[in-house]
Amino acid sequence: MNGVNLTLRVLHHGEKHLARKLTAVAERHRAEPEIHHVALDLAGCSREHAQRLSDTADRHGLDLRDFAGTPLLSALGEKTAETMVHRPDPALLLLRDLRELHLDAAENSVHWEMLAQVAQATKDDELLGLASSCHPATLRQMRWTNTMIKVLAPQVLTSL
């Protein structure tokens, strides 16, 4: 497997993972309309990115449609969170969720940048176009999570 295919695979997995997490956060915080609606909108962006990555990977001889699997640690973390008897305060849970979403989006952003750089180096206009059109939405995901953390952290953390 070459570096481009590896980057496509990792980024595809990252976008699918982020879409699932954004959807879960939207459902968990349904009572917060801004969180619910924006998270669902941003999840749609990640789903679209995953589909476009899959289409591009096909043209590179890589099949991502059947690539499934959540890293073991992530799966264990999700199961642990589901079985927790003591549920944290909803506001603290929201801050944690926003932090995790931000970190996941930041990881995807780094991979989009890597894909753009390799596309430039190899003069692959298709890959460069993909990265150039998708990366801004990932940056939007990061800006939203960062803004929500800035708004919520002071009120949540001072009320403990």
Structure, described:
- By secondary structure, this protein is mainly alpha-helical.
- The protein is 82% helix and 0% strand.
- It has five helices and no strands.
- Helix 2 runs antiparallel to helix 5.
- The radius of gyration is 17 Å and the shape is elongated.
- The termini are far apart.
- About 6% of the residues have low confidence.
Nutshell version of this structure?
With 160 residues, the chain is mainly alpha-helical. Helix content is 82%, strand content 0%.
How many distinct beta strands?
0
User: What structural category characterises the helix and strand content?
Assistant: mainly alpha
Considering DSSP H and I runs of 4 or more, what fraction of the residues is helical? over 70%
Shape annotation: elongated
The number of domains is: 1
For the report, how would you describe the main beta sheet?
none
Average of the residue pLDDT scores: 90
CATH architecture: Up-down Bundle
Here the CATH topology equals Ferritin
Q: Distance between the terminal alpha carbons, to the nearest Å?
A: 50 Å
CATH class: Mainly Alpha
Spans of at least 5 consecutive residues whose pLDDT stays below 50 are 67-76
Instruction: Name the CATH homologous superfamily.
Output: Ferritin, core subunit, four-helix bundle
Tell me what portion of residues adopts beta-strand conformation.
under 5%
Order of helices and strands: HHHHH
Number of helices: 5
Radius of gyration: 17 Å
Give the topology, please:
Blueprint: H1 3-28, H2 33-59, H3 72-83, H4 90-122, H5 125-158
